[in-house]
Amino acid sequence: MPEWFWAGFWGFVAGSALLVGAGVGDLVALGKRSIASVMAFGSGVLISALSFDLMADAYRRGGFDSTSAGFLGGAVIYSLANWFLSRHGAKHRKRSGEQQPSEKDQPGSGLAIAVGALLDGIPESMVIGISLLAGHGVSFVAVIAIFISNIPEGLSSSAGMKKAGRSRTYVFGLWGAITVISGLAALLGYVGCRGTSGDFIAAITALAAGAMLAMLADTMIPEAFDEAQNWAGLITVAGFLLAFILTKLGG
User: pLDDT tens digits for 48-92?
Assistant: First the structure.
């Protein structure tokens, strides 16, 4: 199979964890603290992966200048987009409680949540495709880390959507669409960056990492620490350690 196929395939696989999380949330009535604990673990995994895999790779390719510019740029772009969506009802899109507004409470919030989920998923999917450009196959560390972090995201967000009165068709339709788009985003990352300079690839990789870290700080970590309380730090560290081990084994 050509590499572009594998880029899309692994992006789809990582994105499918959102459906897994939504399915678990639909079948099992987990408490908010349990969901928050899974969210804390996923946050630790993703922080470690973007630190030791994505940022390290960006620095090797382009040095401090391209990496720094991309990293800060990704955080700025994500933060501005997230601020806009938050004003239209997507602020609590990853919360498992009753924070999410219903369509009756805030018309258009369902669309804002859908766009917000797309905003959260595209950067991490793109780096999967970009990782193939090194010529050593896909970064399984990135795939595994994103897959693990997507499970609690789908779990928590779906629980919140359900409490806001959104239908099962809406929830699974949303995550199914995001899964397909994740595959396309990974394919775009591979095709769009193929043949470009190391500095450009470094900047795009770091841009995705910056957006991912801003997403964690704005959406996943607040949910984790709000409910898991005193144990959230320990659970986050456990997730970080797992991804760190995977990074070293993969290297």
Answer: 988 888 898 899 999 999 999 999 999 999 899 888 877 776 665
pLDDT digits (tens, 9 = 90+) for 13-50: 998 988 898 888 777 777 777 777 888 888 898 899 88
CA–CA separation, 211 and 76 (whole Å): 8
- For residues 139 and 118, give the distance between their C-alpha atoms in angstroms, rounded to a whole number: 22
CA distances from 114 to 42, 54, 63, 167, 207 (A): 21, 26, 35, 14, 22
59 and 79 in contact (C-beta within 8 Å)? no
CA distance 58 to 89: 34
Of 65, 63, 71, 61, the C-alpha closest to 198 is 61
Closest alpha carbon to 244 in 35, 90, 62, 50: 50
Spatial distance between the Cα atoms of 24 and 20, rounded to a whole number of angstroms: 6
Rounded to 5°, angle at Cα 29 from 23 and 34? 95
Burial class (CB in 10 A: 0-12, 13-18, 19+), 83: exposed
- The distance in angstroms from the start CA to the end CA of the chain is 24
**46 residue type, one letter:** L
Alpha helices in 132-167, H assignment, sequence order:
140-163
| pTM for this model (two decimals) | 0.82
Phi, psi angles (nearest 5°) of residue 167: -75, 165
The answer to whether 43 touches 182, Cβ cutoff 8 Å, is no
Cβ neighbors of 96 (< 8 A, separation 6 or more) are 32, 35, 36, 155, 156, 157, 159, 160, 163, 223, 227
